[in-house]
Fold each of these.
Amino acid sequence: MSTIKDVAVEAKVSVATVSRVLNNSGYVNEDTRKRVLNAISKLNYMPNEIARSLFKKQSKTVALIVPDINNPFFPEVARAIEDVMSSQEYTLILCNSDEQVEKEIMYLDVMKQKYVDGIIIVTNTLTPKHIESRDIPLVALDRPISKDIPSVYVNNFQGASQAVRYLKDIGCRKIAHIRGPKNIINAQERYQGYLAEVENETWFSPELIVNGDYNIAKTTEATLKLLTNHPDVDGIFAGNDYMAVGVLKTAIKLGIKVPEELSIIGFDGIQLCRLTSPEITTIAQPIYELGHKAAELLLEMIEGKVINNLHHQFDVALIKGQSTKV
């Protein structure tokens, strides 16, 4: 494999001159530049990107840290981020944190050491102090971190309220909620949206709220207990689509007809909703737009631009499937 010294010998110039041509920095006359480029082509020389990143303290790479790669929402949002980054010749590194603060901090440190240019993160555990001490451009996705850190998210409260109102409008008389983890802000906002719509109903009971923790296995177990103890529940709002799939799975196992006997609505709008039978009604986030905006914000930070609007909240939309009554 050819080295930069080989190129310098072939072009009859110094290594420093080859470096200036490669980095497009400093003055090099046109004839010399052509000799260097011809030598690079002849020797099939590939610059050492690791060495260049150490020299420039940048690597044209960014990282995306997500809490659970098994949740289809995150691969879908990663696609949008990768589209934006690849168009600007950046490479995207995907990291799975399992919602563990220790892993998130480890990833921050590793990315800083490797001169990764910026990070997009989905977290409910990191604090501003964790981020500020590492001095790396960062955008929060799905869940805001603080007023000073750029973030992209949706109106979760409004979406949850819309979901429950829709179940009421189609005739559901007893609506339960499968909530996400209590420590995650978007799960809490969706729970609050549900509560605002039902807490004054005569049929409401706190027993109608069970924890699915954004996990299918836990959701199927929680739903089984819920429907066994409250067989008259005829509507369920799941805190995300991943859990809605668990609810549907449990209903089928119990022989409950969906949507004739039980209407199910989720939250997120992932492609998986279109693949189930019946297809799941959902409150859809503009997933691609969220990832696209987060990537744009990160690029602006990397380029040192002033960001006037740090926080971007998107609206959601009801997408009717077959899991709710007409």
Amino acid sequence: MHLFIYNLFCKLYLIGIHIVALWNRKAAAWKKGRQNWPSRLENISLKSADSFTIWMHCASLGEFEQGRPVLEAFKDRYPSAKIVLTFFSPSGYEIRKNYSGADLVIYLPMDSKKNAQKFIELINPQLVLWVKYEYWYHYLTQLRKRNIPVLMVSGIYRKSQAFFKPWGRLHRYMLDAFTHFFVQNESSASLLRSINIREEKITITNDTRFDRVTAIAREAKNFPAVQSFCNGYQVIVAGSTWEADEEILSHYINVNNSIRFIIAAHEIDEEHLKDIEQLFKNTIRYSELIKNPAQSITAHTLIIDNIGMLASLYQYASITYIGGGFNKSGIHNTLEAAVYGKPVVFGPVYEKFAEAKAMVERQIAYSVSTALELEEVLNLLFKEEALYKKTCREAGEYVQSQTGATAKIMHFITENAFSLTGKTPG
């Protein structure tokens, strides 16, 4: 009965996507990206007697950033291995479809027994990395039947999830496909033990994103025009913002002309960029700034109108703001900002994010629900120098103290996974 409901859900989801694709850009990309996928796989060379293929699946871009350190560490150690990277969401695939670290980047076909059998047969993986969450019954069942090792990377579990409910039998069955769970915290490990996942199958590693953001910070790009815009000013960098974030930020920014503000919105279509320009005073787009840097004299809000700069922009901040905290799905990546030793501020929806909760508890991050609360926090940090310096120092120390997950996972792979696959990369 549970499997019938699951299959029905998948079919209805597919029908719904095809309908919504008539007017929704992301749904249209989801649909188009999956067309004729078997022929695309049949035209590449992944199946050969001596090849070793590792498949990493990510729901979206955030999960890719979590899995990326492991994937790249594997490729560094075993350069002859083939890499297949799959995404479910367009927001992951469209940004990383040209990722040079993989031999193939492709949408994961919608879950069905037929699709799972065909996909796995064509890519022929010897090792699978499943990042954080998103469980697909037929894919995991086929991997289990074929005795292909599946590692959960940066897994995190909450009591509210179906695995831990009386009716969650189908979901618990999916967990049986995993060879090993690398989880972010003890509470996740405890929940897995509560449903009889054996202790030896669980390792607490923290989150691989700590490794990723540390690497990004070491290689941060310098943007001379942005540096010039910021020189001599206190700076707030707001990343991955949505309309609700921008609304509460505008109340503070528009009355504090002595502060420079950089906003990198989650969506940068022309309509949204124009909305931001209407909301904030004295704005300039980055594309305009690099053509005429002198314009930075009169502007005090810089709007980033491209993708790819944000992770490096946080280095210019005095204080950072992370968007998404007024949406049901919650905040975006706080660690990209904290790694530079910067105070982090975000909206009220952050409970699903272990690192955000830990940062709030350590008072190196602040959650706000209103424009007034935001003003109080920003004024406190700007005016209390001792508090500000302490927050900066402890933010950087927190990120550094949590690194090392990638090394633990790679150690397991080299010591255990190859014996399970019966094959080693050349």
Amino acid sequence: MRKHYLLWMIFLFSVLQLNAQTYCVPTAGTSSQSNYLKNAIFSDQGALYYTASSYQAYVDNSSSQTVSSYPGGTVNVHLDFAGSGVKSYVWIDWNNDGDFDDFYENPLGPSSYSVVDDLFFIPPSQAAGIYRIRVQSGTSFPNPVTPCGPNNYGNFVDFSLKIDASPTCFVPSTLTSSNITNNSAMISWTAPATAPGSYEYYYTSSTTIPDTSTPISGTSNTISAPISGLSPFTTYYYYVRSVCGTSNKSAWSLRGIFKTKCDAKTSMFEDFESAVNGPNNADCWDRIILGSGYQTIGSGSGVNSSKAMYQSANGAANTVIAVLPMFSNVNAGTHWLRFKAKVSSTAGVLDIGYVTNDTDASSFVNIQSVNISNTVFDGFEYSVVIPNTIPANARLAIRHGGVPSVNIYWDNVYWEPKPTCFTPTNIVLSNVTSATANIAWTAPSPAPAMGYDIYYSTNNTAPTSSTVPNITGVTANPYTIQGLNSATTYYI
């Protein structure tokens, strides 16, 4: 008994020694703390996910973040960095000797991209065990580069790699989602080379990763599954694993992500002020981009120098389409779309219509093309009445078709009941004298039964519904305004 006890102690001591290696604590960030590893995903037969929102010179996640693989396996690596022009190195201590100086212990690097998608291979003879991973990121490194630093322009993050025996039940891959509504979605995946008998899937709105004890959400005998009962406008994470036997299941797959649509609205005002700057969508909006078309939300280009949507397209092959939120009354025939728009120089065209598939540009149907030649927002507003003949499942959309090739900005978008009395457009002034001016306009359709009111002032403050007009009951078009002061600027 004593001999067996001694053998177990020797084995236990060797395991503890293997997993208790002392690694150098790297030094970093003395010159810059703007470049660091922001997101990381390592995946094979198991995955790890890492996110950082601020700089830390060194983060040791080796005891809490582990990716699993097997001899001869392939680990996929996704790295996303804060800062620009960031390079990265990935180190692995394959022989567990407490350093990263041996053969093939720097399988990835250097890369010089703000996002890295790469992979490394597990040596076929690699022994089972847990091995240290170190990611080094920065914009400039000393020569030679070392995993202990100094790294004056970046940081270090450690993870762990767990090597298991070759599995007999492999993980599914390439998770996708489709047919997303406000409360349901279809999830799909690719079967491993050795297909299992069935699959189990799990979905959640939490970023917590499932483990072997996590209750499943459902099972499937095919490579897809519908899920329902979801909350609107919510991000969901989903995972799939192979079931090769009652007690033989693969690890959970690399997660898939989708966001449910919003509940349908009955009205809307969007000024983009709460939207994130950049090529993003406002809440509940979607976008379709072809080729090199461009659509973004930016500050300083909207009404009163606020935020606005910006579309740029060069030719029909580079069309961009902004898809509005879903409206439950889209085909009631009672509402219109109203917005402000301008161009930077050359006149352009926006097509106002709808899509029946918010990911397919070919499903766009034009209702009305709007010509935009004004280079300022003030005094210019556009509206399109939406007919009751469009499909109930249609989503309104604003398309820049790329012809002509111009930059178009638009802001203050309303979905609202259409008025019963419409605004005249295209006001034109002519024959100005020291005391008179002719004014003409395009009559709305239908034309007003009681004529027009005219308001003019030397103050550029726009009138409101309570402003008293200077002239009422006008039926002539054009009309001559009289009694003006000479050498005076008027706003009409």
Amino acid sequence: MNLDLEILETEKVNSNSKSIDVMSTIEMLQVINEEDKKVAFAVEKVLPAVQELVDEAHERMMRGGRVIYIGAGTSGRLGVLDASECPPTYGVDPTLIQGIIAGGFEALIKAKEGAEDDFALAKQDFIRISLNSNDTVIGLAASGRTPYVIGGLDYAKELGAYTGAISCVSNAEISKHAQTKIEVLVGPEVITGSTRMKSGTAQKMILNMISTALMVQYGKVYKNLMVDVQPTNEKLIERAKRIIMSSTGCGYEEAAKYLQSSGSDVKVAICMVLTGLSRGQCEAMLNDNLRNLSRAIRSLKSKDAVPPKD
């Protein structure tokens, strides 16, 4: 593979930070801040490609598929981070959205030299999790040329899984190995080649968009509330009550009563408040609508249904 790094936007010298080593602290921070402001605009330009990837992943997720992020170094860590936040935030199984990093979990805190250059390593990682054709694999590489990611995308394609690639350079090598390519061009880093900065920020923003959009489509959100929160400690119990109050307009005591009578199921509690139906009826209605509360409430428009209060 061509290792001519000078052709990569992420490796070019940033003229705005050439003198950063002699700047005052506030001058340094202002330069970094000004460069960071450019990231959101760069991400905006690739939203159609992000939409395509989300829609393809959602279609497969509804067939029982998973979303797998793969990457090395900073990119790999960002994938693991985004995936690991989904279970506590949305109450999903940890396998639904997964992050795999070259070199394994030890690489999260200590660099594993050579792991990212191994084309065959991702295949071994995918075999361990039984990757299949219903899954979506999203390769992450700021430089767009990581062999580990390329090998993983190629193996995923062989199995019939859907593939996406997120990089921060134009004409990225990994784009040639994926069905959906996302090339978010943030320009030269403040510190030349330090892609944990703007490139990392761009990747994190896009991963947040992907996982959040998928969770909304998966029925984990009602209005803009995390209705699949698991009330497993005092803080989360209080959060659950606040979610019930916010989504239904009921008071604190009523929310506490419905949370208890629902079996600590926030979705069921909200349904009970809004519809006046019993716990069993709400559970059945949710199950009929794939546990999607928004869809279940809308289903009450049928002539025999009890109209919702909201």
